[in-house]
Amino acid sequence: MKRLALLLIISSSIFIISFTHFEETKAVKSESIAVVELFTSQGCSSCPAADEVLSKIAGNDNVFALSYHVSYWNYLGWKDPYSSEEFTKRQRKYGNHFKLNTIYTPQMVVNGKYEFVGSYESKLNNALNKIELDPISISISDLKMHSGKLTFSYSLDKQPTNLLLNAAIVERHVENYVPRGENHGKTLNHDNVVRNLKTINADDSGSLSLELPEFTSDEKLLILYLQVEKSLEVMGATKTTI
User: Fold this and answer.
1) How many CB atoms lie within 10 A of CB 124?
2) What is the CATH number of domain 31-241?
3) Angle at 53 (CA atoms; ends 51, 56), nearest 5 degrees
4) ∠ at Cα 37 (32, 42), nearest 5°?
5) Are 85 and 223 in contact, with CB atoms under 8 Å apart?
6) Cis before residue 179, ω within 30 degrees of 0?
7) Distances (CA, A) of 98 to 64, 112, 233
8) Which residues form the signal peptide (predicted)?
9) Domain limits, the chain
10) Where are any strands of DSSP class E within 15-137?
């Protein structure tokens, strides 16, 4: 009888642990969406852990993961090949929005509402679990690649008011060896790396053209997402392969 009781206690404990783990790591509600922006750099020794956190959610259908490589680490012995001053400016905009004393890496921003250290997976899960959004639907059509450019048309199912449309060309997975800097000697992996970004005032429909970068892999995405111009809150997103 004592042995049976012990087995029941152990089984119950395993069930409780498994259930709790499921609750902590579940993604956003199926009817909602979340845009997760990670500001990172190959020159930052704290960033690979955050890159791994982003990779865990990069394949989720209703999560739009974006890895923005900033430029301000480039002077420390290694220039991040995916970095851009434009992405640094984007992060500064968030820094002003959240009233931060300084920008930093790794930083995650979820739906323009929550920001935290990007390697804190528990904070990411908490933010995802808070998301309740009836998103504006975005449709993509006439997608073409020619003469070094990506062109497409978009349409929204609601009339936009003071909204920005972000169009990001994303490389699904990249990998490279880092010979210098804080991560010297490491081979780093990144998912959903933003290679080009264009932000415009959103209309109910329109067309866009973006310069195509030199890709290092075959898997590429176009991710579109809407943000309120002043609050930066995300209002909708969609993605498609290119």
Assistant:
1) 26
2) 2.60.40.2550
3) 110
4) 150
5) no
6) no
7) 21, 9, 12
8) 1-22
9) 31-241
10) 34-40, 63-69, 107-110, 114-117
